[in-house]
Amino acid sequence: MTTPPWITPPPEAVLPLFMQASRPADAGAAAGAACLAKAERTTAFDADRARAAVLELLADGVARSGEEIVDHCERLGLVPHDARAFGPVFAALARRGQIESVGFAARRKGHGTAGARVWQITAASR
To answer: What pTM was computed for the model?
Structure first.
């Protein structure tokens, strides 16, 4: 069967936007590092204190969403210019094996974004 002349198939080299190559894997880490650096430079935010506060909160063994943890840190006065500065805080603790992601929860923030990550202290950190 031949294709009618009024139907032109798309060129094979052009992919829909959602199928195009994603950003490099380290771009997210670089953006997080830049956000954290700005938070420490422009506010009283201290990543070391934030990491300690996360571990202290999770020391009871109860898993909590990242949003709950961020709210706790902000009540302690650890308020960055942008809450996304907490991403590198969680990432560093996870890389060190001190906390681990154990699931997802419904978001209270984020305007329809995917579920909030749930974190728990690891057995080695208790």
So the answer is: 0.77
